[in-house]
Prior knowledge:
single chain, mainly alpha
Amino acid sequence: MAIAALITWLLTAAGGFVLLGTWIAKGGVQQRSSSHLPPPVIFGHFLLAVAGLVLWIIYLVVSTKAVAWVAFALLIPVALLGFFMLLRWLPVYRGRAGGILSSTPPEHHFPVIVVGGHGVFAVVTVVLVLLTALGVGAS
């Protein structure tokens, strides 16, 4: 289960890199006034997720439960920030469909399939990390 968590975490990270790259390429850092996603939230989400992933890799090497629990603990604010960003992104997505946006925020360019996949893999990752930390499925 720990390896499955690593795989889903890496897939989540891949989607996150696409979204972060899109946001930066479309001017997210320069167009702070038009973006619905605050840079500290985006970069905080990214940095905490990377720190957790590094800890998860360390856990896979050393098999110390405390490391697994710290990685899981880091996923809590990552998930909360991700959910916050999703809630801020939804009106942008709806505005895209209705054409009601006065200016185009950088997150307007997010591929919906990537947003959805990132979220689904993130939820699966949190569940797998929790189950692994609890020792479910351990031999």
